[in-house]
From TrEMBL:
Residues 40-51 have a biased composition (Low complexity). GO terms for molecular function: transmembrane transporter activity. It is found in: Membrane. Residues 22-59 are annotated as: Disordered. It is a multi-pass membrane protein. GO terms for cellular component: plasma membrane. This is Major facilitator superfamily (MFS) profile domain-containing protein. It comes from Fusarium xylarioides. Its main location: membrane. The keyword 4Fe-4S does not apply. The chain crosses the membrane at residues 84-109, 121-140, 152-171, 183-202, 209-226. It holds the Pfam family MFS_1.
């Protein structure tokens, strides 16, 4: 049997120690598996034509101007037209504010004529104020939906209808109902007058017209008990 030689270097072939006539298959070193590109790399789905953003639409949306409340300027009006608008708004506000306090001194006389009880006294005076306060935010939202003109005409019509019911009242219940209808229209008129001033006049003139309407409201409230 052949004796293996001792080698100092680790690179010596091991087949030198194997006797002749013995076959050893040549085993190749296993190579690492290569990754499959079809499996390792996820496929990116292309967006469909409907999902792709339209460049023209996005650019057009950016170029469209957006009007804000501070930058809005109403169209100019002539001097006569402006005065007629302010006069009509002030007269409407005067009548609506006048009915708030007009019954303060007339309640004893009305109570004798219509045989009003002590419990109904309070409702005759407060029914107008209560309905006015309740519908104020409602009219503001309605005017944004149907328009200022339709809302103003409707509230004015309700106020006139309530005034007619009060004039023809022959009982305390009818008078309270008429005052309630008055308040439904009067609340709309008062809040819409404030909105219309902001819509019709530029920002630099709004303070002046708000001051005028405030004076009218105060004068009407002071004159109410006297009349």
């Amino acid at each position: 049997m052949p004796i293996c030689r001792s080698h100092r270097h680790a690179t010596t072939n091991i087949t030198s120690c194997i006797p002749p006539g013995i076959y050893i298959p040549n085993r190749k070193r296993a190579e690492p598996a290569q990754p499959n590109p079809r499996i390792s790399e996820p496929q990116q789905s292309q967006p469909s034509q409907d999902e792709q953003p339209n460049e023209k639409d996005s650019v057009g949306a950016r170029l469209q101007p957006v009007e804000t409340g501070a930058s809005y300027e109403p169209p100019p009006m002539k001097t006569l037209q402006r005065r007629l608008v302010v006069l009509s708004l002030c007269l409407t506000l005067f009548l609506c504010a006048l009915d708030t306090t007009i019954l303060a001194t007339a309640l004893p006389t009305i109570g004798k004529e219509l045989h009003v009880s002590a419990r109904e006294y309070a409702w005759i005076g407060s029914s107008y104020t209560l309905s006015t306060t309740a519908v104020t935010p409602v009219w503001a939202k309605v005017s944004d939906i149907v328009g200022r003109k339709v809302s103003m005409m409707t509230s004015t019509g309700l106020f006139m209808a309530g005034s007619l019911i009060c004039a023809l009242a022959n009982s305390s219940g009818m008078l309270i109902g008429g005052r309630t209808v008055q308040g439904l229209g009067g609340g709309g008129c008062m809040v819409l007058i404030t909105i219309l001033i902001g819509d019709l006049f530029p920002l630099k003139d709004r303070a002046k017209y708000y001051g005028i309407t405030g004076i009218v409201f105060g004068v009407a409230g002071a004159i109410g008990p006297v009349t």
